[in-house]
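Take a careful look at the sequence and tokenised backbone pasted below. I need to know what the token row says about the fold.
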Amino acid sequence: MPAREALHRLVDSLPERDLPTAARVLEALSSTADPVLRSLESAPLDDEPDDDDLDGGLTEARREALEGTLVAHEEVKREFGLR
């Protein structure tokens, strides 16, 4: 019996209460099969500070958000004739 068919039979034989656990195990196996996803999941957290020295417009954007003077994305698209 091919492995995939054997797995289907095993899943079909599980009690309903065990299906969430089986799904989590299979999802974990699936994600570790993708080297890019595995690399992203094991990458360290970005702990660099967000300040204006690193991103020239961050302070200005925060100020505009607090003041309510931001321009909506849809408005910018209309201005440039984009959909």
